Amino acid sequence: MKRTSTRLADGREILYYDTNDGAARAVPDTRPLGAATASTSEVRRDPLLGDSVVIASHRQGRTYHPPADACPLCPSTEGRASEIPAPDYEVAVFENRFPSLAGDTGRCEVICFTPDHRTSFAELDEERAALVLAAWTDRTAELSVREGVRQVYCFENRGTEIGVTLAHPHGQIYAFPFVTPRTTRMLATVAAHRARTGGNLFEEVLAAERADGSRTVLTGEHWTAFVPYAARWPYEVHLYPHHRVPDLPALGDAARAEFPRIYLELLRRFDRLFGRTDPTPYISAWHQAPLGEGREDFALHLELFTVRRTADKLKYLAGTESGMEAYMNDVRPEDAAARLRQVATP
Question: What is the pTM (predicted TM-score) of this model?
Answer without folding.
Answer: 0.96
